[in-house]
Amino acid sequence: MDVGTIARGMMACSSSHASGCPMQRPAPLGRVQPIVKPSSAVLKLQRRSRRSAALCVQATVAERLEVSASPYIHEPGKGLGFYTGTDGYLYVDNLRIDDIRAQVPDSPFYLYSKNRITANYKAYAAALEGLEHFVGYAVKANNNLPIMRHLQSLGSGAVLVSGNELRAAEAAGFDTTRTIFNGNGKLPEELRLAIEKGALINVDSEFDLENIAEAAKAVDKAARVLIRINPDVDPQVHAYVSTGLANSKFGIRNSHLQWFLDRVRQEPLLELAGVHSHLGSTITKVDIFRDAARIMIRFVEKIREEGFDIKYLNIGGGLGIDYHRRGDKIPSPADLVNTVRDLVADLGLTMILEPGRSMIGNASALVNTVTGVKTNGNKNFIVIDGSMSALLRPSLYDAYQHIELTAPCNGKQDTFDIVGPVCESADFLGKERELATPKAGDGLVVHDAGAYCMAMASTYNLKMRPAEYWVSDGELKQIRKGETLQDHLRYFEGL
Ligand SMILES: Cc1ncc(COP(=O)(O)O)c(C=O)c1O
């Protein structure tokens, strides 16, 4: 479907949505989205809340605006990324999400704000000013091609964990000499490709170094390598996203550093370009980056003493985002860089950061449709069409992602688990959430779904991977087609 012009013809929702929950997905009315003045909208919501004990989540949030200036509430059409309008509807950039739902044939679907991605990249670029640096976007977080193309056009490099990610990065236009190939199990053919393309390669273990040396000989080209060191600083995150401890499956045994240096020295086609570390993901305390940088600098000094002229200090990615959308103080890229700036400024090294989540996470939401509401025992469930197949993080890590209805709703306020249709009890998107009781057809978004969501989506239960759209300078565009059953059946043709 060509949706390039959808935004220009974007339709307003039925006015009944403002006072109640629509039974059906919103139907276009054929006029341009009206912008409601915040003061009158807030007053209206306050009047309604006085009339009804059952407050809508959106109304409650909008009322709080007057006292707390939440970063997630803005005048309709005036915010960046995903926010609640002071009219109680959810928006992305200038567009009402219910209007987008009315135009998009798919549900669930991923929706992005391109301007938010730009702002996220620029926050890193600005934070690193004054330091020799490059930013490597961690493609594992989200490998959508237009998104990758956009980030490279802004000046980003790329961090890759497979040969296919390297090929995709090249297809997206990344300069492959500004990419880093990471991983504890890189395959010989992937290493040959990385060397041919001039990528920096992280050395993860003794066997990995041997494989890199072999690959360099096979393609007769020097391999530029970084040694991945585990600073053994606890990132204080979920065990599944902690990567830099002494017992981690990633990185070298630090006590064996000398073996790695000697081995590199013996191999003319190995060029030791720097050191790398990655502590983990969802990090919300930047002082651990300072602790890690201090440790890494000791390694740099030791390596230089051994006569190696190294050029790069890569301190990884890992910054968290405000998944609870409470306006918590999450460190910014500037906070991260400023924590280590004085330590690294005079080292004569190019600093590399590898953000994934903080680049793309808050730039997207999974937009779903409510299938129905049910109660079993003492549990209420909102059943939606999205599921763990489309978005796995809650099932995988028990991760919290904030959930909201897309429109004001007068249904009874209650506590719900939000679950999908997949045949697993682990199929939930959120637990114990306070929401107004929606009706079938209402819109429900799972926020902060840009990172490690679509990238981890599967076709479990033959729930096909969703389509993706972004809002680009005010216009809605499709940036990935939804998968179809025909795509699946193709794998069996001609066997
Ligand atoms: C080596 C490496 N670099 C960068 C990243 C990106 O991390 P994040 O998305 O938390 O910024 C990861 C993710 O785990 C990683 O393993």
UniProtKB/TrEMBL annotation:
InterPro entries given in the database record: Ala_racemase/Decarboxylase_C, DAP_deCOOHase_LysA, De-COase2_C, De-COase2_CS, De-COase2_N, De-COase2_pyr-phos_BS, Orn/DAP/Arg_de-COase, PLP-binding_barrel
Cofactor: pyridoxal 5'-phosphate
A Pfam family reported for this protein in Swiss-Prot or TrEMBL: Orn_DAP_Arg_deC
Keyword Lipoprotein recorded: no
Protein keywords: Decarboxylase, Lyase, Pyridoxal phosphate
All copies of domain Orn/DAP/Arg decarboxylase 2 N-terminal, residue ranges: 116-359
Keyword Lyase: yes
Domain named Orn/DAP/Arg decarboxylase 2 C-terminal: residues: 110-450
UniProt cross-references to PANTHER family, sorted A to Z: DIAMINOPIMELATE DECARBOXYLASE, GROUP IV DECARBOXYLASE
The protein, known as: G13155 protein
Organism of provenance: Coccomyxa viridis
